[in-house]
Amino acid sequence: MTMEEINSIYYINKEIEHIQRELYDLKTKNFYKSNVLTGMPKGNSEHDIFSDYAEDIKTLEDMLHYNLKMLQTERKKDRKVFIVNRRCGTKTDYQVKSST
């Protein structure tokens, strides 16, 4: 396994953690706000907060599934290389470093 492959897996894992944290924050968000009695008029927004919320969750879940598939693909590549090296009798990078 090369450093490039290790870095790729590392950054995919970091991105998965970030997306999971964002999903958690979004799902635990409180939409009910207390009334602020300032006497100042407020603009009336016509967009639906809950549809934006559902759209954001769907987007984050799609990103999470995509990154999980990428991680699985990277690990499968590494596993194939490991199996080929094992069958051929060649040492992997880890075995070479540990034997010295």
Structure commentary:
Helix 1 runs antiparallel to helix 2. The chain has a domain of 49 residues. The protein has 100 residues and is an all-alpha fold. Helices cover 72% and strands 0% of the residues. 2% of the residues are buried. The C terminus is likely disordered.
Give a short account of the largest sheet: none
Order of H and E elements: HHH
What share of the residues does DSSP label as strand, in percent? under 5%
Mean pLDDT: 77
Radius of gyration: 23 Å
Overall 3D shape: elongated
Low-confidence stretches: 92-100
The tally of beta strands, per DSSP, is 0
Content-based structural category: mainly alpha
Helix-residue proportion: over 70%
Number of helices: 3
Question: First CA to last CA: what distance?
Answer: 17 Å
Please write out the topology.
Elements: H1 3-27, H2 49-88, H3 93-99
Give a quick summary of the entry.
The protein has helices at residues 3-27, 49-88, 93-99.
Key words describing this protein structure:
mainly alpha; elongated; disordered C terminus; 100 residues
